[in-house]
Amino acid sequence: MANTILHKADTRGDANHGWLHSKHSFSFANYYDPERMHFGALRVLNDDTVAGGRGFGTHPHDNMEIISIPLEGDLEHKDSMGNVAVIQNGEIQVMSAGTGIQHSEYNKSKDSVVKFLQIWVFPNKKNVTPRYDQIPLHLKDRKNKLQQVLSPNANDAGVWIHQNAWFHLADFDKGTTVDYQFKANGNGLYIFDLKGDLKIDNQIINTRDGYGIWDTDSVKITAETNAEFLLMEVPMNIN
What we know:
Elements: E1 3-7, E2 13-16, E3 20-24, E4 42-50, E5 55-61, E6 65-72, E7 74-79, E8 84-88, E9 91-96, E10 101-107, E11 114-121, E12 131-136, E13 147-151, E14 159-160, E15 166-172, E16 177-181, E17 187-195, E18 198-200, E19 203-205, E20 210-214, E21 218-223, E22 227-235
Parallel strand pairs: 13-14
Antiparallel strand pairs: 1-20, 2-3, 3-4, 4-11, 5-10, 6-9, 6-11, 7-8, 7-10, 9-12, 13-15, 15-22, 16-21, 17-20, 17-22, 18-19, 18-21
């Protein structure tokens, strides 16, 4: 029998700093809930909106896989590896912090907000050499199907990380159904509903809800309305 957990959108941590409005699916910064520390190897899922011209000053990370998925606007990135880049909707960025990096993220526009998902995954290797990558994604490849955007394999579709994890994005018309088959034993799946209503097996979830399921090898996903969502398959046991 599968285990499940539902995180309704309005139960997330809510940090409004004026220039930054962040919704935390898991404990982060001043938001602490001992029942919501992580979902397996998925440690952070922040739904961030950054005001025009503002951003996160230079700060350090180590031993974490960090993924950014822009939803709207242009996010400017700079880091201690010498990378300077702008990440836009339709792209995905990954950093392996490993032995340590410093980076900053700013809204490149002075006039409009930038919205992005900031995701942290525990790595399966410590103290790796820091790494940065950023690739474009073709939006048509997620229309009524699952678009793989992350995996453990450097030669597979999407970016790769140091973890036995797979991410998919999807943009489904109402009535579209898919059976998701888990890629690895011992993994769980966390579904983040970006827009619309989904039926996960027999559970209805709505915009910005999160739903975790594990101890199963497949899950049926149906779009009850037009819907966009992110699937994150991660190991449930972390060392």
